[in-house]
Design brief:
Oligomer: heterodimer
Shape of chain B: globular
Number of helices of chain B: 9
Distance between the termini of chain B: 51 Å
Number of strands of chain B: 18
CATH class of the largest domain in chain A: Alpha Beta
CATH superfamily of the largest domain in chain B: HUPs
Number of strands of chain A: 13
Radius of gyration of chain A: 22 Å
Helix content of chain A: 25-40%
Distance between the termini of chain A: 56 Å
Radius of gyration of chain B: 21 Å
Structural class of chain B: alpha/beta
Largest sheet of chain A: 9 strands, mixed
Shape of chain A: globular
Order of helices and strands of chain A: EEEHEHEHEHEEEEHEHEEH
Helix content of chain B: 25-40%
Strand order of the largest sheet of chain A: 9-8-7-10-6-1-4-5-11
């Protein structure tokens, strides 16, 4: 099988976000970059599937600036076969990202299955997986936390909120977006991280992908940090007094319970 | 401006989050709504009272138990016929799945999980959180194509229903092409408690609860006040709660009216997932816990002592 994985490099979850002076982006100095956590599940699932299907290869793709090669190297260290970086503008939106990813799958494919995380934790758009599917004219099952593999179809469980689960069967090829619970991503060993440093990473230019400015539909501007919070009002007294006072505040002042 | 609202419903009633969409500042727009699924006829009055001018009823059995693929084909056909400027949906599991499909199919622009949508003299202002709420940004639409926008639950107050208003009802018939996906089954395992992404009140427990059983303290209090039960990542990793309850950057991002954090220290990833809550209450033994930096009210104390007392205090008030 020809298995593809689309990943995004994002700031580590512990990052304190600082804004750029022009207010149209974040200050990237001192940021530790990681593979977006849901995309790690996508890589792991591709590796699990490769073990099940003989003669399969896993290709990992990431649209982003030069630094995104580090995320691709980590994917190589986890065990994928090859990696390519799609050199499109850094501030591209979901539509442009999905255009670039689908164009590269057309170029390197055809794909039998494509995995990607249900959302990237930087913009949290939860859009790229479904958009790739539309551009490739393939079915998509999103937010998947369990897969049973058949011959030319797969059965997926997807999280539809409130603890409810939808069971969807889809024909292959298909795009699957991954949710926590699907698997436990493996750690790359130190040895494999060193080995991955020597592996080639292809760069595909926007011209090769046919990406133009017209593919970008939205821009994010005027970034703001959340307003500082008022100091916390600590409720004093005995535990009973504290509890009664809190319920009084919630019921009478906020009028919410 | 012509706006199409994707309405969601449960047990014959519009969801609260759908009602909220009508509370956004929609200006002098022509407001259309679409409802799909079985037995949707009774919803048209409710939509009219909220301010819909026209309601498109998709009353087809094949759309009752639908896949995302069916809903996509259906709404795409409606949009092609109606030609709205903007499509509004809730950033719910359904809206999240549908919106990017619509934007990609119709070559429109997409903005998801928005917390502000203000239409003022045909000028549209849209903001969304970024980096899981560590910042927000304005969404600029580059061209005049169709805009598909999902709105985070609890970003607006639903309007008071105006019983004198009614909507024109239009039946919409779809012709579905061959499907690549099939819905086999829906497994309901959610129980009666509201989902954290839609609840008005959330009571969250951390790892200091110490076991899955001890979460009953949190559940008893939450059930009494109609709240959802949330969990920190540490408590999920420890196996005390299912992943679906996890609040934070790699779990659910929530924005309830009241967020009560019990024994949650407030790691930056957790704060990112809940800091836009309207009122935050923290209960923690450690007065230096970061959760107190975002809380409006705090109790420095042991949750095992305080939470049962809170439950008692609510019961007493309810009895009076």
């Amino acid at each position: 099988m020809n298995i593809f994985v689309c990943i995004k490099q994002v700031p580590d979850t512990t990052t304190q976000i600082k804004l750029r002076e022009d207010g149209n982006g974040i200050d990237e100095t001192d940021i530790q970059w990681i593979i977006s956590p849901h995309d790690e599940l996508a890589i792991e699932e591709a590796l699990i599937l490769r073990e099940k299907k003989p003669n399969s290869t896993v290709t990992v793709l990431s649209a982003g600036p030069e630094r995104a090669t580090e995320a691709l190297r980590m994917a190589l260290a986890m065990g994928v076969d090859s990696a390519a970086r799609l050199d499109i503008p850094d501030n591209s939106d979901s539509a442009m990202n999905a255009r670039a990813l689908s164009a590269s799958i057309n170029k390197l494919g055809p794909a039998d299955i494509v995995f990607t995380g249900k959302e990237a934790i930087d913009d949290g758009a939860s859009a790229v997986g479904s958009m790739i599917a539309i551009y490739l004219k393939l079915p998509c099952v999103s937010v998947v936390n369990k897969i049973d593999y058949g011959e030319d179809s797969i059965t997926c469980r997807r999280d539809i909120g409130g603890g409810n689960i939808e069971v969807i069967e889809t024909k292959l090829p298909a795009i699957i977006s991954t949710q926590v619970g699907l698997n436990e991503p493996r750690y790359a060993t130190a040895l494999n991280i060193i080995k991955a440093k020597k592996k080639p990473i292809e760069t595909i230019t926007r011209e090769e992908l046919g990406i133009t400015e017209a593919n970008q539909k939205t821009k994010l501007t005027n970034f703001e940090l959340p307003p500082p919070k008022q100091p916390c009002r600590l409720i004093e007294g005995s535990p009973t007094e504290q509890s009664n006072e809190l319920i009084r505040l919630l019921a009478d002042e906020i009028q919410a319970i | 401006m012509k706006i199409l609202i994707i309405a969601e419903h449960k047990n014959g009633t519009l969801t609260e989050t759908t009602r909220e969409l009508f509370g956004l500042s929609l200006g002098q727009s022509e407001v259309h709504a679409v409802v799909h699924g079985g037995d949707v006829g009774s919803l048209t009055d409710q939509l009219g009272h909220l301010g819909a001018n026209k309601v498109h009823l998709i009353n087809s059995p094949s759309v009752k138990n639908h896949t995302g693929e069916v809903l996509e084909q259906t709404i795409v056909q409606l949009i092609q016929q109606l030609n709205p400027d903007t499509v509004l949906a809730i950033h719910s599991p359904l809206g999240k799945d549908l919106a990017p499909r619509l934007a990609a199919t119709l070559d429109g622009s997409l903005a998801t999980d928005c917390i502000q949508f203000t239409l003022d003299n045909n000028n549209l202002h849209v903001r969304r959180p970024i980096y899981s709420g560590k910042a927000t940004a304005q969404v600029e639409f580059v061209d005049e194509c169709l805009k598909v926008i999902t709105i985070r639950p609890r970003s607006a107050r639903p309007p008071e229903p105006d019983l004198s208003r009614s909507a024109e009802v239009i039946e919409f018939t779809v012709e579905l092409s061959e499907q690549k996906t099939t819905l086999k089954e829906v497994i309901a395992s959610g129980g009666e408690r509201p989902d954290v992404t839609e609840a008005a009140i959330i009571v969250t427990g951390g790892r200091s609860l110490g076991s899955a059983e001890n979460f009953s303290i949190i559940e008893n209090f939450a059930d009494l006040i109609g709240a959802a039960v949330g969990s920190s990542r540490a408590a999920v990793d420890a196996g005390y709660r299912p992943y679906r309850d996890q609040v934070g950057q790699t779990g659910k991002v929530v924005s309830p009216q009241i967020y009560i954090a019990c024994g949650v220290s407030g790691a930056i990833q957790h704060l990112a997932g809940m800091r836009t809550s309207k009122h935050i209450v923290a209960i923690n033994t450690d007065p230096d816990a970061p959760i107190f930096q975002v809380a409006e009210y705090g109790i420095v104390g042991d949750l095992f002592e305080i939470v049962p007392l809170l439950t008692e205090a609510v019961k007493k008030r309810n009895d009076n």
